[in-house]
Structure formats: C-alpha cells, structure tokens
Amino acid sequence: MSYIRKRKFAIIAAILLFNCSNSNSPSISYHRVDGNLNADIRSLYEHNNQNLKNAISLLIMSKNGDLPYNLVEKISESIINYSYQYNFDPLFITSVMYRESEYNPFALSPAGAAGLMQVMPRFFSKKGANIFDIDSNISSGVAELARLRDKYQNYSDMLMAYLGGEGLLRDLRRGEISEETAILMNYYTYIILINYQILSSRYRVYLNDESSFLSMY
After folding, report:
1. Where are the chain's structural domains?
2. DSSP of 79-139, one letter per residue?
C-alpha cells in the first residue's frame, strides 16, 4: 500500500472527481473486469524470452537504478518463470510488482507485507526460506495471485483480494465499506490493469524502439 500513501493527493483528487460526477454516472462502489483466464500465455509472445527478459530488466533499472544488474536479471527471470508456471502474462506480474514495491526487494509495509510482491507472512509458501529472497517472494506472490484468480475468475476481484484482503473484497461486494475506500480500491486496481495494457502494447514497439517501452509510467 506504499503506492497509495505516496500518492494520497492524487487519490483524493480522484475521489473528488468521482463525487462531483453527475447523478447518471454508474456506481463505482464495485466493478469487475473479466478476462480470458484460460489463455495460453506463451502464445501471446511471437518473440523469444530473451527479448522479454531484456525489456523487463530495462524497465526495472529505469525505476530502481540502485539495484545491481545481477539482481535485476534475477528478478526478470523469476517473473518470467513463475508467470509461465501459473499461466500469467509476465508483463502483468511486472505491473503488479511495480505498484506493490516499485521493484524494491526489501520493501516492508506497516502491515508486514514484504518484498517485491508484498507477500504477507501467512501466504509465504517457502518453508524455511527468507521472505525477502527474490525467487521465493515472487513464487509465493504469483502463487497467491493464481489462487485468487482461480477462486474469483476475474481480474478485479483477484487484485482487490490480493491488495486489500479477501475480507475487504467481501465487504466491498456487500456495500459495507465507505465510498472512499471503494474508490481507493477501484483506483488501485485500475492503475495496475491500465498500466498492464499500456505495457503490453509498448512491448511490441519496444522491439524496434527501446525508449518507448520505458515511458509507460
């Protein structure tokens, strides 16, 4: 949730914008975005994994220039490996990771969410491993996303449950949370989904112009 805290003024502006919309506007308290959850992710890429790895590595370095290159490569490799293992688009996981930790392997939230994927200790699946270990953290985070995807069968619910917990998602569905919290969760979810769509389209352009890929955020 560090992303939300750092951008509270932008979010307040979004809340005010929604509240000032006319009475004919659709309710924003709960909205789903369904997706093709059975897609063969490998078929989405006409080019080899080295191109994809290079693109993700460039993006990570552009956002966290303090990371040594060997760690950047390790992050990129783990994103690709576990995305394919759990049938996600690696660029989607890249987008989630940026919004969760801004590619900081040692990020720690006040609630205890840790690492690149901001994994809660109770969901950390690697017994005896360090929760900040890059490979273990990404593996646990992507596995939890896959569990939520398979349970809820749409991207919005999957992301809201991952970001705020399944209890918050339940209350959101029932209309038992404040409008401001509902807007916050929708805002955070849509930022990830929109950036993923932009990143996916720019990956194609990246193959001819690397600079265009890095301007997504």
Report:
1. 46-152+190-213
2. HHHHHHHTT--HHHHHHHHHHHHTT-TT-B-TT--BTTTTB-GGG--STTS-TT-HHHHHH
Among left, alpha and beta (phi > 0; psi -120 to 50; other), residue 45 is beta
Phi, psi of 129 (to 5 degrees): -90, 165
Cα–Cα distance, 83 to 88 (Å, whole number) = 5
Across the range 68-87, mean pLDDT stands at 95
Q: Which of 46, 73, 77, 100 is catalytic?
A: 100
Strand partners for 114: 108, 119
**Cα–Cα distance, 206 to 66 (Å, whole number):** 23
Of 15 and 54, the one with more pLDDT: 54
Listed in sequence order, the residues at least 6 apart from 170 whose beta carbon sits closer than 8 Å to its beta carbon are none
pLDDT 10s digits, 127-144: 778 999 999 999 999 999
100 is catalytic: yes
Question: What is the Cα–Cα distance from 15 to 47, expressed in whole angstroms?
Answer: 41
What does the alpha-carbon distance between residue 154 and residue 160 come to, in Å, rounded to a whole number? 10
Please name the residues in contact with 85: beta carbons below 8 A apart, sequence gap of 6 or more: 142
